[in-house]
């Protein structure tokens, strides 16, 4: 359990770039370096996270922890990956953030954003070769990327996943390079875990009731705070930046626009999942005990996605290995590659590559990454130091 926690904690310290970058970091660490699972199994977990509401990359990490160490392993993975960003955003909510104005600090953050471009580009290249072997899969990838670039919304993303599954079911069934083989395929039947499903549904119904009662009474409580963030976590597909509109709508009465935008900016500046923004907002809302507010909000926004992963995780491995659904999985995987390609441009590339020098560093880093295949932490140190030096000279 400590090994799982330590691996995810170290990634949580350096995982800039949002969900797409996190998926790249996870693949580099747990598939290529540690061999905890193979590319096909990893691809199936990514596909499952796209179908479930919640923080997409954190759900993948949760599933990797579950694969490695059961439920406790999943919790260790979540705590490890989320703890650095939680601590940073909580401290920034209760203390001054003047240190963010220093050119040295901004340089380090900018260098790590450039590294995110390299990592995501490598992940897309590998996943393209793995999941886009046939013409139909390549067309799905290109189509999903173009549509998401032009119409980025969670409804569009979910609709594309359903369409890709249907297309894959009829045109990609039985592809030898895109099947996921797991021992559960031999089981005669597949059953969802209704224990976790009942907990998810019960908490969702209770949150709806509690928010209604709180509005009638005109008072706030920790239960209402939990309910607000739990509802947001239950409705967001894919995680990342798509959580922002729902969050602002949900807690708009409790925090000002300036506070919300400040938290959003800081969440982009720190490593880890965007959902950790809940730590900042929870501390700002529950000012009498900010740590309690941050903990409640963070738990509430992550919990729905994790409960739903537990509902389908074991069954998903069994289902995804069955011949009648391998085509649908292949279609979804191709669509996810398109999503990652769109995310490589927006928000990763456009927020990181701001000059010809930045582009040169990305090309150099990608070349070194593919030729020498260095450890991810060597790359982190290299890009961080380079960014700091550029920031110092620029300042």
TrEMBL record:
<feature type="transmembrane region" description="Helical">
    <location>
        <begin position="291"/>
        <end position="313"/>
    </location>
</feature>
<feature type="transmembrane region" description="Helical">
    <location>
        <begin position="376"/>
        <end position="394"/>
    </location>
</feature>
<dbReference type="InterPro" id="IPR014047">
    <property type="entry name" value="Chr_Tranpt_l_chain"/>
</dbReference>
<feature type="transmembrane region" description="Helical">
    <location>
        <begin position="192"/>
        <end position="213"/>
    </location>
</feature>
<comment type="similarity">
    <text>Belongs to the chromate ion transporter (CHR) (TC 2.A.51) family.</text>
</comment>
<feature type="transmembrane region" description="Helical">
    <location>
        <begin position="107"/>
        <end position="127"/>
    </location>
</feature>
<dbReference type="GO" id="GO:0015109">
    <property type="term" value="F:chromate transmembrane transporter activity"/>
</dbReference>
<feature type="transmembrane region" description="Helical">
    <location>
        <begin position="225"/>
        <end position="247"/>
    </location>
</feature>
<dbReference type="InterPro" id="IPR003370">
    <property type="entry name" value="Chromate_transpt"/>
</dbReference>
<keyword id="KW-1003">Cell membrane</keyword>
<dbReference type="GO" id="GO:0005886">
    <property type="term" value="C:plasma membrane"/>
</dbReference>
<keyword id="KW-0812">Transmembrane</keyword>
<feature type="transmembrane region" description="Helical">
    <location>
        <begin position="139"/>
        <end position="172"/>
    </location>
</feature>
<keyword id="KW-1133">Transmembrane helix</keyword>
<protein>
    <submittedName>
        <fullName>Chromate transporter, chromate ion transporter (CHR) family</fullName>
    </submittedName>
</protein>
<dbReference type="Pfam" id="PF02417">
    <property type="entry name" value="Chromate_transp"/>
</dbReference>
<feature type="transmembrane region" description="Helical">
    <location>
        <begin position="71"/>
        <end position="95"/>
    </location>
</feature>
<feature type="transmembrane region" description="Helical">
    <location>
        <begin position="325"/>
        <end position="342"/>
    </location>
</feature>
<keyword id="KW-0472">Membrane</keyword>
């Amino acid at each position: 359990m400590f090994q799982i926690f330590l691996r995810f904690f170290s990634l949580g310290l350096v995982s800039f770039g949002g969900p797409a970058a996190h998926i790249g970091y996870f693949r580099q660490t747990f598939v290529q370096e540690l061999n905890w699972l193979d590319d096909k199994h990893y691809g199936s977990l990514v596909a499952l996270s796209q179908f479930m509401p919640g923080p997409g990359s954190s759900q993948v990490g949760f599933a990797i922890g579950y694969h490695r160490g059961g439920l406790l392993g999943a919790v260790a993975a979540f705590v490890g990956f989320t703890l650095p960003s939680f601590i940073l955003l909580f401290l920034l909510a209760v203390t001054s953030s003047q240190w963010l104005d220093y050119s040295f600090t901004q340089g380090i953050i900018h260098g790590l954003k450039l590294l995110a471009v390299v990592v995501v580009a490598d992940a897309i290249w590998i996943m393209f070769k793995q999941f886009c072997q046939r013409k139909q899969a390549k067309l799905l990838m290109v189509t999903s990327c173009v549509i998401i670039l032009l119409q980025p919304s969670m409804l569009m993303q979910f609709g594309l996943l359903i369409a890709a599954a249907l297309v894959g079911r009829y045109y990609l069934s039985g592809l030898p390079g895109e099947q996921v083989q797991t021992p559960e395929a031999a089981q005669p039947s597949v059953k969802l875990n209704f224990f976790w499903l009942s907990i998810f549904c019960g908490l969702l119904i209770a949150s709806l009731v509690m928010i209604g009662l709180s509005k009638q009474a005109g008072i706030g409580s920790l239960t209402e705070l939990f309910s607000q963030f739990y509802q947001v976590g239950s409705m967001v597909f894919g995680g990342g930046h798509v959580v922002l509109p729902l969050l602002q709508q949900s807690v708009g009465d409790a925090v000002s626009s300036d506070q919300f935008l400040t938290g959003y900016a800081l969440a982009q500046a720190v490593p880890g999942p965007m959902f950790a923004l809940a730590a900042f907002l929870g501390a700002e809302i529950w000012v009498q005990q900010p740590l309690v507010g941050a903990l409640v909000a963070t738990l509430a926004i992550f919990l729905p996605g994790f409960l739903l992963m537990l509902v389908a995780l074991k069954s998903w491995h069994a289902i995804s290995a069955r011949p009648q659904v391998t085509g649908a999985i292949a279609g979804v995987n191709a669509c996810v590659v398109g999503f990652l390609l769109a995310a490589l441009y927006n928000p990763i590339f456009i927020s990181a590559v701001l000059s010809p020098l930045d582009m040169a560093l990305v090309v150099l880093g990608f070349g070194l990454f593919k030729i020498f295949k260095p450890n991810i932490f060597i790359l982190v140190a290299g890009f961080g130091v380079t960014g700091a030096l550029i920031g110092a000279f620029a300042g």
